[in-house]
Specification:
heterodimer; A: alpha+beta; eight-stranded antiparallel β-barrel; two-stranded antiparallel ribbon; 15 strands; B: 3 domains; three-stranded antiparallel β-sheet; two-stranded antiparallel sheet; 25 helices; globular
């Protein structure tokens, strides 16, 4: 075989995996995705509602928290005073990390402090999917479906970062802005073997990444009908066997898959994952991807996003988040008796019609298949977004005072005295 | 800083004096004694850009706003003969000239730009400066500089070099002075007595070279063309044919063709194109620029690269897309490159340039389509048929209510007004046949829930949809005649009159005989004696030559 022939085969191999063509395909680009958080109030973020009768978690008295952790009032007030040197608008107040037993860093050792508590959802309604097939467990959906498993919502639904009307919570806005401005692109391909895309018993739904950015229209919304090439990725991919009835796509089998999550922790690693997506008359697609996800990743995501900043701005104590996630975890991959390392979760997805192409952009995808074999191997994983965040705190090598269990935290006159 | 400010003052004074000196003493050589100015056209933005790129290299940044251009009789090229320079426009050219000079003579570029080496880099060097000014002066002013013009630049250069202690700083001033010279910013066409016909005038060789170069390349003549002008060889048909063939074979011919079609297709309108984002959310500036480029790529590919039949411009399904346009056309973009060739399917309603979203969106309202505008522009651009402005007292309210029925119904109501119907009967059928495309050019079949009828009758011809319009234009004799007229007018910078009819007819017949090949048409026109024809005064004016004006010449010729 000559080199041209080999190159041709190599190119064809990269164009698309070998798989039978579907009878029909529909393709979409995810223009919005957010944790499925049912909002039970009439208006406002912190106001009481059926989801959170007391409203969101209240603002925290950090002087009190620090004193409970063993600091004197003088020390605690000095630490909380923005004029003092360990408080920075950039990295927050690093010293807040050391409020565990024996000044342990509570971000890396959340159990070094007693559970400070996190107000969770006490309502009965939730969005999501019945992941365990048991209508007797879980919430009821807003349209009356029983057995909705979404303990993630139960845990964080009254956290003001997550709470809010559809597409309006601060966390969703932050991460979707990032996605819509080009941070990442998720594609959905639906392929069926029947002759009616609205009613097909044999369907596959693929979630893929693309390097092609979404484009905003003249109103600032994502424009439909743009073309995206699939980027083969060793991690981010999920394929769901499904059926379609009256335009509603539902899983026929639970699978494992990883999506790009709109959060500080980017990997949404789902076990027993399912979908419920509705093909709308305007051509768009909307619904849920659900499954059980490792709950500790959620906690780590927030810690690595600069723990003190997250705590101060979003009115939670991260150890409280840790305890609550652990408490509400409801799935063990190793069996019913195993450690509950996963928590039920649902991602709310809105997608627009798009053209999805093979990785080399030469042809429209004609089937749902895995592209992982075409992906370069992952070179390494980075746990956090910010390289200077270590153990939840921002490390500035040039800072005059570094945080740590034994850092100087006393008022300036005492610092001067200590230097003598 | 103060040194620079002073230098600018010196530069301005010297430039004005240099021009005044040139204007007052136009005749430096005996053969120029009877020369006179017969044409003055402000160079366009693209001509400026191409000139700078050709003379100094494509890496030189040209960052400025240019003075608005003016369209006359369908062409900006005709308007350019009526434009002056405002004071703010001059400021822009001045700032641009300074920035170009600074970049050309920057430390990283000066070695390439200045082939001689100054005897003292910290002072003046007249010999080296003369070499620089003479070389670039001829390229920029499109003729050799007079001794006075050279001398004034040498003085500027020397003064600047001494003041700044830098030879190249002095050259910067001299170059800026050239870049703001009226003879650079305007194409000054000169006529001289024709030796073969002593009573007649002809364009001098440098003006001929300039006409050729701006028609074929949209840029200044190169050294080879200037040499042919300098030797006088360009006056011979043999040399003219040789130069025209050489220039058409050059890749720069595409620049010339692009500039021509951008002008003829009125693509400058994209700069002001707005659409209501609530109605056409996919429209943005990027789409507008892409749509403009698509029309040019389609034209260049068919007419220049393939040397295809001009009439295929109206019927060809071959086009070019980028990612933004593909989204508007609602087709997949199967390429990783910025642009890709694309062929619309056989059964597509898209065929030809009239179904490009560029044409369709440019000639529509911000929130609706406009059969009338589209019809007017089809007639004007491709058939050279002007349509008068509507009467001042027309009530447009019924036509503008886009919430009811289709535009056909609204226009029929409007046409009950006798003052309107005359023109609308002529313009609207072509536009109504394009109504399957909305104000952005997106395909549709319904308007306000009503099916859109795209049939139309034009005189005795019944047309159906966009393909019907395309076939109509393909077979309409006015279409090739209009292209011929436009190429000629564009090149000479003048309207055509009855006296040109025989020439244009012959050119049109030759164009048709060539199989409607655009390069052949341009070659025919650029090689013809009529292309360099000037309108000479009936009797010799007693006024000084410098005072002779185009207006005088035209008025005596009419």
């Amino acid at each position: 075989m000559n080199s041209i022939g080999r190159a041709g085969i190599a190119l064809a191999a990269f164009a698309a995996p070998c798989v039978a063509m579907a009878a029909w395909t529909k393709a979409y680009v995810v223009e919005w995705n957010e944790p499925a958080i049912y909002y039970g109030a009439k208006a406002g973020v912190i106001d009481p509602g059926t989801d959170c009768p007391q409203g969101t978690n209240p603002e925290i008295d950090w002087v009190k928290v620090l004193m409970e952790a063993g600091y004197t009032r003088e020390e605690a007030e000095w630490l909380r005073n923005p004029a003092n040197p360990t408080r920075s608008p950039v990295h927050g107040q690093n010293q807040m990390a050391f409020r565990g037993k024996a000044r342990a860093n509570v971000y890396v050792n959340p159990t070094s402090t007693p559970d400070p508590g996190l107000v969770g959802v006490s309502g009965t309604l939730a969005e999501g999917l019945d992941l365990d097939g048991n209508a007797k467990t879980g919430f009821t959906s807003p349209d009356g479906e029983k057995g909705i498993d979404n303990n993630f919502y139960k845990t964080v639904g009254c956290w003001k970062t997550y709470r809010g009307p559809r597409r309006l919570s601060s966390g969703a806005l932050q991460f979707n802005d990032s996605m819509r401005n080009g941070a990442w692109t998720t594609l959905i391909v639906v392929a069926g073997q029947g002759d009616d895309p609205m009613n097909d018993k044999d369907v596959n739904v693929g979630f893929y990444l693309s390097d092609d950015k979404m484009v905003k229209d003249g109103n600032g919304n994502i424009a439909p009908d743009y073309t995206f090439s699939i980027k083969p990725h060793a991690r981010y991919e999920a394929i769901f066997p499904a059926r379609i009835k009256n335009g509603v796509i539902t899983s026929t089998k639970a699978v494992s898959g990883v999506l790009r999550e709109p959060a500080y922790w980017r990997d949404l690693e789902l076990e027993r994952a399912q979908i419920k997506l509705t093909m709308k008359a305007d051509g768009s697609l909307s619904g849920y991807v659900g499954g059980y996800r490792p709950w500790e990743h959620v906690y780590k995501g927030w810690v690595n996003a600069r723990g003190p900043v997250i705590e101060a701005l979003t009115w939670v104590q991260l150890p409280g988040v840790y305890y609550a996630l652990r408490r509400n975890a409801d799935y063990s991959p190793s069996g019913a008796k195993g450690e509950k390392t996963h928590i039920s979760y649902a991602l709310r997805v809105d997608a627009l019609p798009a053209f999805v192409m093979s990785p080399d952009a030469s042809q429209q995808v004609a089937a749902v298949a895995s592209y992982k074999s075409l992906a370069p191997a992952e070179t390494g994983r980075v746990s956090g977004l910010f390289p200077q965040v270590v153990d939840g705190i921002f490390i500035d090598p040039k800072a005059k005072q570094q945080a740590g269990p034994n850092a100087v935290i006393t008022p300036p006159e005492n610092i001067a005295k200590a230097k003598e | 800083m103060s040194t620079k400010t002073y230098s600018v003052g010196v530069l301005l004074t010297a430039t004005v004096l240099a021009f005044a000196s040139h204007a007052a003493t136009p005749a430096q050589r005996p053969e120029q004694a009877a020369a006179m100015k017969v044409g003055l056209r402000r160079i366009t933005e693209t001509q400026y850009r191409h000139t700078i790129a050709d003379v100094f290299g494509p890496g030189i940044k040209v960052e400025a706003r240019f003075e608005p251009e003016r369209r006359e009789d369908g062409l900006l090229a005709l308007g350019s003969a009526m434009l002056s320079l405002t004071s703010s426009g001059f400021e822009q050219y001045f700032a641009l000239g300074r920035s170009i000079s600074e970049e050309v003579l920057s430390e990283s570029r000066r070695e390439a730009a200045v082939t001689c080496r100054p005897s003292d880099p910290a002072g003046a060097d007249d010999d080296c400066a003369r070499h620089f000014v003479t070389h670039y002066g001829e390229l920029l002013l499109r003729r050799p500089l007079t001794a006075a013009e050279i001398q004034s630049r040498l003085e500027i250069s020397a003064r600047g070099a001494k003041q700044a202690g830098d030879f190249y700083a002095g050259l910067e001033l001299a170059l800026t002075s050239l870049l703001i010279a009226p003879d650079f910013l305007f194409r000054v066409e000169s006529a001289e007595p024709d030796p073969a016909h002593p009573e007649q005038y002809r364009l001098d060789a440098f003006s001929k070279a300039t006409r050729l170069s701006f028609l074929l390349w949209d840029s200044t003549p190169d050294l080879q063309l200037l040499a042919a002008a300098r030797s006088g060889a360009l006056h011979s048909q043999q040399e003219l044919d040789k130069q025209v063939d050489r220039m058409i074979a050059s890749p720069k011919f595409q620049d010339g063709a692009r500039a021509f079609f951008a002008d003829m297709f009125q693509l400058d309108g994209f700069g002001n194109l707005v659409k209501d984002p609530a109605i056409y959310p996919k429209f943005d500036q990027s789409v507008a620029e892409s749509a403009r480029e698509q029309m040019l790529l389609r034209s260049m590919d068919l007419l220049v690269r393939q040397q295809g039949d001009y009439r295929d411009l109206f019927t060809s399904r071959q086009s070019y897309l980028n990612r933004s346009l593909a989204a508007v056309y609602q087709v997949p973009y199967a390429s990783k490159s910025p642009w890709m060739a694309y062929e619309f399917p056989n059964d597509s309603e898209r065929s030809g340039i009239l179904t490009d979203i560029g044409f369709l969106s440019l000639h529509a309202h911000p929130g609706t389509s406009s059969p009338t505008r589209r019809g007017i522009k089809v007639l004007e651009i491709f058939m050279c048929q002007a349509t008068p402005q509507p009467p001042a007292n027309v009530d447009f309210s019924a036509v503008q209510d886009s919430t009811k029925g289709t535009v056909r119904g609204r226009l029929l109501d409007h046409m009950e007004n006798e003052g309107c119907s005359g023109c609308h009967r002529r313009t609207d059928p072509l536009g109504l046949a394009l109504e399957h495309f909305d104000g952005l050019g997106q395909l549709r079949t319904m308007e306000n829930g009503t099916p859109i009828d795209v049939s139309a009758e034009l005189k005795d011809v019944r047309i159906e949809g966009a393909r019907g319009v395309a076939e109509y234009l393909r077979n309409e004799p006015k279409v090739p005649a209009c292209l011929v007229r436009n190429v000629y007018s564009y090149g000479v910078g003048s309207k055509t009159y009855g006296r040109d009819k025989a020439y244009l007819t012959a050119q049109t017949q030759a164009f048709i005989a060539s199989g409607y090949r655009f390069p052949t048409l341009v070659r025919q026109i650029a090689s013809s004696a009529e292309f360099f024809k000037i309108v000479a005064p009936k009797s010799k004016s007693n006024a000084p030559i410098a005072a002779a004006t185009v207006t005088q010449l035209q008025s005596t010729a009419e």
